[in-house]
Amino acid sequence: MTEQTRRPRRGQGELEARVLAALREARGPVTAGWVQEWLGEPLAYTTVVTILTRLHAKQAVARERAGRSFVWTPADGAGLAARRMRKVLDAETDRGAVLASFVTDLSPDDEQLLRQLLGGDGEFSGVGSLDRAGRVDGADRAGGAGGSESSGDSEASGAVGDVES
């Protein structure tokens, strides 16, 4: 390939973000071939499968057997954001300072929602209830705690970054 025909290099997480966007747009579980077609780029099928597998390892997507291959769906966005937040918190030595700084920067609405979730005694009171994955069921009715899929290292693009289990 000559210098003139070489495509510019993608930004970090850009392809993962595009794959996640494809999965969010799908009306249900889809195959890697469907994702490859949706992307509309000259990507090898194995590249798409590799990206999906990496996203699965990061718990950003779920997969289910369908014959000899898999079908893929995006993971819960709120749960993914919570795992990112826990990872950042776990990397710090002074958890109290990190949490205090985080709470200090909350909007009044988010602070009120956090107070509702914790209850007056500091225990989780559940505006809704926690499901088995630790997600708040019904929190979106209380002000939007559960739901955005577009969080991540590159929030605007929805990139997954370095989420780990």
Structure description:
The chain starts with 13 loop residues before the first helix and ends in a 28-residue tail after the last strand. It has helices at residues 14-25, 32-39, 45-57, 77-90, 95-104, 108-118; strands at residues 61-66, 69-74, 129-130, 136-137. The chain has a two-stranded antiparallel sheet. The radius of gyration is 19 Å and the shape is elongated. It contains 6 helices and 4 strands, in the order αααββαααββ. Helix content is 41%, strand content 10%. It is mainly α and 165 residues long.
Gist?
The protein is mainly alpha-helical. It is built from six helices and four strands.
Write the layout of secondary structure elements.
Layout: H1 14-25, H2 32-39, H3 45-57, E1 61-66, E2 69-74, H4 77-90, H5 95-104, H6 108-118, E3 129-130, E4 136-137
Q: Characteristics of this structure?
A:
165 residues; two-stranded antiparallel ribbon; mainly alpha; 4 strands
Percentage of residues in strands: 5-15%
Approximately how much helix is present in the residues?
A: 40-55%
- The number of strands is 4
User: What ranges have pLDDT less than 50 throughout 5 or more consecutive residues?
Assistant: 127-159
What order do the strands of the largest sheet run in, or round the barrel if closed?
1-2
Number of helices: 6
The ordered H/E elements are HHHEEHHHEE
Apparent shape: elongated
Radius of gyration: 19 Å
| Class inferred from helices and paired strands | mainly alpha
